[in-house]
Structure formats: C-alpha cells, structure tokens
Amino acid sequence: MPGNTKYVYDFEEGSADMKYVLGGKGANLAEMTRLGLPVPPGFTITTGACNEYYQTGEFPDGLLDEVEAHRIKLEQKMGKKIGDPDDPLLVSVRSGAAFSMPGMMDTVLNLGMNDDAVQGLAKQTGDERFAYDSYRRFIQMFGKVVLRVEGGLFEEAINKLKEKKSVKLDTDLKAGDLKELVKEFKDIVRVHAGREFPTDPHEQLKLAVEAVFKSWGNKRAVDYRRLYKIPDNLGTAVNIQTMVFGNKGNDSATGVAFTRDPATGEKVPYGDYLINAQGEDVVAGIRVTEPLLNLKEKMPKLAEELFANMDTLERHYRDMCDIEFTIEQSKLWMLQTRVGKRTAAAALRIAADMVEEDLVTKDEAVQRIDPDQLDQLLHPQFDPKAKVDVLTKGLNASPGAAVGKVVFDADIAEELGKNGDKVILTRWETTPDDLHGMVAAQGILTSHGGKTSHAAVVARGMGKPCVCGADAIKIDAKNRIFSVDGTQVKEGDIISIDGTTGRVVLGEVQLVPPKPSKEFDLILGWADEIRTLGVRTNADTPEDAEKARQFGAEGIGLARTEHMFLGDRLPIVQQMILAKSEEERQDALAKLLKVQRDDFIGIFKAMDGLPVTIRLLDPPLHEFLPSPIDLRVELTKLEASGTPEHELTERRELLEKVERMAEQNPMLGLRGCRLGITYPEIYKMQVRAIMEAACQLKKDGGDPKVEIMIPLVAHVNELNTLRQESEAVIGEVMSGCGVAVDYSIGTMIEVPRAAVTADEVATVADFFSFGTNDLTQMTFGFSRDDIEAKFLPRYLERKILPKNPFETIDDGVAEVVRMGCEKGRKTKPDIKLGVCGEHGGDPESVKMFHEIGLTYVSCSPYRVPLARLAAAQAVLGEAVVTTA
Questions:
Q1: Which of 297, 725, 732, 761 has a 20 to 30 A CA-CA distance from 353?
Q2: Using an 8 Å Cβ cutoff, are 336 and 37 in contact?
Q3: Residue pLDDT, tens place only, 142-162
Q4: How far apart are CA 171 and CA 820, in angstroms?
C-alpha cells in the first residue's frame, strides 16, 4: 500500500457519512463530537486497516506508528498518560463495523491497567476499591477476549470468593478481596494462556487492536453477517476512546437509552440504567436494571441533560437513536449512538409518526422499513380465548408468541431445529456465542437481563418472540431443568412464551394469527402509490386466496392444481393412473372434473375481478402412486403371512405398473406439458373444470379473469399443440353454457431453451410466468434436494456462491429471465411477464425483477406485504434498512 494511506482518524476528523471508513460507531462518535455533545476523546482505526490485516495476516505498514502518534496526542489532550503510576489514562478498545452487529465482535475496557497504574488510579480517585475493581475487570476481559482464556474460569473464581466472604453481589466485595482476585486472575491467565499477563500498556493496546480485528472473523460474527446479508469484505474499525467510569459511587451511573420505545415505537425515552456500574453490567444482565425514566427522580438535572441530548440526536439523524451513556461523578458522557434496532411494529409507527412530525417524507418512511422485518407482524399470538396457567412473567422484550421444547444449549437448539423440532432456547442470559441457537429457536427465554440485553436486542432484530429477566426461573443447566416456585420443567418439556406480555406458560397454548397495525396499512398504501411492479400470490385454496387478498395481492400468479389431487382425492387420481380400461379412466376423470370445478369456483370467487393463473398438472404421475420400495416390503410381508394368491397377484400387478412408470430422472422426464401431450385427457379435463367454474361464476354475476398456464414448455410446438387442444375445449364449454369468458393462455418459462427461444414461444403465448425454482435448477444443473443437503453449505461457506440461489435470484439466472423478457416483448410488446417462484417474495430478488421490467411477481400470501414494500423500494433506489 502507498505510504500516505491514512489509517487513523481522531474523532474531530470524521463525520457520520464516513461509516464505511470509520465503521458505524466511529463515524457516529465523530458526528457527536462535531455536534458539541460530551464525547470522551479518542481516535478510530479504519476498516481498511482491518481488511489489509486479513489479506496479509499482519498490521499494515505504518499503522502502529500512526496509532502511537494519535495515542500521544490523546494523552496531551487529556493531560494523562497510559500506564502512568500517578495519574493513568485508561482507554476502551471497541469494534465498530459499517453495519451494526451488536455483541458479535470484541471489546476491551480499562486498557492501560497494571500494578503501577492501579496505585495511581486509587490515588487519583481516593477509592482503592474502585481501582482494584477496574483492574480485575480489565484482566478478566482482556484474558477472555485477547488471550482466549475460558471466561467461566474467572466467573468461577469470583463466585468462590463471594461464597468465602459470605456476600451475594460483586459490589459487596472489599478492596482487599479485589486485590486477592487480581492475583488469582493473573494466575488463571498464567496457567491457561501459557504466559504472564502483559503489563506494558503499549503491548496491551497492540494485542487488543489485533483481537478486535480477529473478531471480525469469529463464528458468531460470520453467522450474524450471513443472517443479515452483510458483506464479509467490509471489515471492522477499532475505536480507542478515553475511559469514563459509571462505577465511581452513587453519583455515577451507566445505561442504554432509546429516543423512542423500540418495541412499540411510542415517542417516549426508553431504556435501562444502573447506578455505580460499568456498561457491561447493563447489557450482560448481571444486575437488575432500573427503567430510564427513574433517572428523573434520582438525578434530575442529568436526566434533563440526557433527554435533551437524545432529542438533539434524533432530530439530527431524523430517526430513532440507540445511545450508550455514562455518568461519572455527576458528569454526563455520551459514549455511542446509532440508528436503533426496533421491532417491525415500532418501525412502522416511528416512520408514520415522523412523517406526521415533518422529520421525514413519505418516500423516506417507505425506505426506512426492512421488508423482511414485516414478517414479525405476521407472527402468531396467544389465542385470547385460551385459558392459560401462567408459570411466571418476565420482561416483554420482543413481541409475538412461540411454542416449543425447552432447550438449555444453543448447539442442541440448532441440532433439533435442523430436524424440524420447535424449541424455546432457555438461558440464564444469552451471549453472542448463542446466536446459532437463537436462529434455530422459535423463541428465547432468559431468567436475567433487561430489555436492552443481548437476548432482547438480537431477538427483536430477528423478529423472534423473547421474554427476558424472568427471574423466578432458576436454571440448573447441569441437570437440564429449570424450576419456578417448586414446579420443575425438564429439557424437552413444552412451554409457550408471549413476548408481547412477558408471560411464560407450561404446556402448549393455542396461537392465533396476528392483526397488523393501522401503520401497516398506511405505509403499505404509500408503497402501493410508488411501486410499478404488480404483486400477486401463489394460492391453491380459497382460504389462501382470501388471506392474500387481505394482504394486498392483486391476483393469483400461481395456483398449483397438483395440490388439489392430494388428501381424500388421491384414490381417484390413482384410479385414473392405474385404470385398466378407457371406461375406468373416464370414470375417474369425471370424478376429478367435479372436485376440480368446485375448487376453481372457490378460488375465482375469492379473487373475483382479479386475474387467476392456474397451472395445469406439472409433476410426474408416479408421485401420486405408492413407493415401489414400500410396495416390495408390503408384498414380502404378505407372502410371509400366507395371504391368498389372488390378493398377492393384485399387489404384484400394482408393483409392476409402478416400477414401469419409474424414471431415472423424473424431474426431467414425463411431467408438465409432456404429460399433457402424452395423456391429453388429463389437461382437457382440467381446462373443462376451469372454464365450467368460470362460466358458472359469470352467470352468477361474478367477474372471473382466467389465465391458463401450461408448464415446462421447451419448444413452441409443445405450447401450440396444447393451446389448440385447450381452445377446442374452451369453445365447447362456453358454447354449452351460453356464456363468454375472457381468458388467456400462457406458459411457465422454467426450461432455459424456452427463454432462449422466447421470441418464438411468444407467438402463441399471451403471457410468460418465470418459474425460477426449476429455472435455477436447470440453469445451474443442480438438483435442489440433493445440493442443499450435500454441498451447497460448503459452497456458501467458501464463497463459491455468494448466496443461496434458491433464496435470492442468481445473477446468471436473472440474465436468463432478462433474455426471455426481451425476446418475448420483441415479438409481443404487450405480453404479460411474471415470476412465480419463491424468489417472488424475496426483497433482493424483487428489486432485480423490477430492474428487468417484469409485470408482476407472485409469492406466498404472507410474503405479499414484503413484496409490495420491496417493489416500492426498488423504485426509490437502494433500500435503507433500519436494522443495519
């Protein structure tokens, strides 16, 4: 790198718009400094330095010299020196990425402490206990974070000492006790780190900076970035900041504040604080916190100053802010601010209120909402009619309700989650290392911690229900049980939690669908005014269609008729497939005609006046038949049990037919339009059922809008053949009913050849719907079921693929879609173009489909609101995600 690269910035040199250089924390510290707020001085090492460190494994040339120069400048500014035996300067060393990753990377506080500095701090403050408490905290944190000593060893030593001294709280330990603890902590480091605890402050600083750089690559940080789609190449900045102390007595305090309630969005200061404590005491749930509003009674002038600063920050950032503060001997310090994480309900209310307050425009309000976060509002709640026996109550940390098995360990939660089990991760308090278990769990329950604890903040960001601080719960992790007033709950027992009220219930509570807030409809209404991309739903039943319409769907983009062949209709389908005579087959088809017609009437009624795209039968017929392996096992058992020969003959004939229909690669075999051409009576029956249903509804005064979709077309002649056969049936039905119904016939583009020859296919298609699930499989040559279980995780881990192509549309597959659109419109400029794969509900994919120029996307009913919002954000430009 060139010698003039700048790696270090004083807080006075930066600003909020430098977050990709200074990280979010460093940029906001610089911005608060510029605003004249009381920020402890310091400097920031850039994210670029971290990235170079990862490329080479070493600090960039010149970095340590720059750090040294800025350290000296900081010492001159403060009139103190790091490690000074008379008046030591202590600093914190904190991570800070461009996007907030709370608790995922490492922090070291009280850096600069050693045997000399502790004497100077005691002399400076006149408080020997405070000095040694600061020293033991430093050894404990540095030992765990930098020297990788197991944190439980330090906690165990503290608990043994408290037991020995017959005290309950850490704060009850005397100065002499803490001196003893410092010595024991050093011994723990010597034994478990294989070295003496470093006493040179310069070495401490270098090791701490390196530890923060390394924490960018730790498992929990990598998992968090994957969950929130944060790029791995951004790196973290490192903030070196003068320490201020909230644990200098009863005129000192520390806390976390939000300018509005992050759970509800109400415009009221919100948060927790502790008197005579350091910051980690608040977020770690070590002590029971007090509500922020209580500060008005305890420290009225400082509360007034804090609330004024919070108002300044909210108006400056024009958003809800999350703030960390410390009061040191009646002096307020602002340690950090960032745009605060919030629930979806709070995000909507805050955005709507800020429009009303003229802080933001409607467009900005729409951009502020993370589409994925809307899922929270669609989570179930406890059925209000259910009789519940509340085991205990905690803090309502993240809304929504969940039911699952009690699990005390994040690894077990992850394992059970992968097996499809629903679990509630139950912990004394979560740590960043529990992230993978939190992802797998339906909800989180902790016995300690407040509304700004790790569990609460992370759960809110994920949209998971969470109950925190349920202190009546006594967890015995060793024996895998917890108890509440004599009631024992074992691992694996079912509990229900209500993150909206804080209730914890033993057993399963019936859940009910949620009712979105008025702001939900208001902001989605604004989004509808902005977006140009239509949003339909994938629905196979009238119930799904009605739900989707309530969520704003503008029609059905995919009704899968094969789903209507299951359940109690399966024997009729099997009769049709296995018929030994034409008469038997026609009898089965007549039965199917009736039930299919009734299905379509229900769907057309639910979507009256809106387009309904019905896909004719797609999967291979053998999917509706018994497994040949199961049949062989059954036959063997029958033969062994002496079953009469005529019954055996019947089962052997069935097995023979099933085996005859088996294919080496059924997903590329006799399915879709190939099935319709080989067995034309099936598609004719379905087309007749569709049109008879539409004609009946039209006679009854309805307005059915019929779109018949023929799947898996690869060649224009396939579509042409089936269109002619379908139109012959349509003509018969309308003539017989004496009713004319508008209809269109199109195809699903899921075979790459169809996209390549889309100009030809468009000559006989009224619309294209891109089936991006199969199109992704065929473009990559992947079998989804096989790769997701075998090598896709490895591909994602090694960055061979940047993301799962079945969740977010791949760039290459998107180019196939683009080609199909361009060629189709070249032949037929007004052709309707849609997407009906799972990608239609993925916000990132929706943005791509908008850019390509599709007419609409189609997704599951509960993804419709997300797609509406994402489509509007695609118009407005890159979405501003408030959880970033």
A1: 297
A2: no
A3: 999 999 999 889 989 999 999
A4: 69
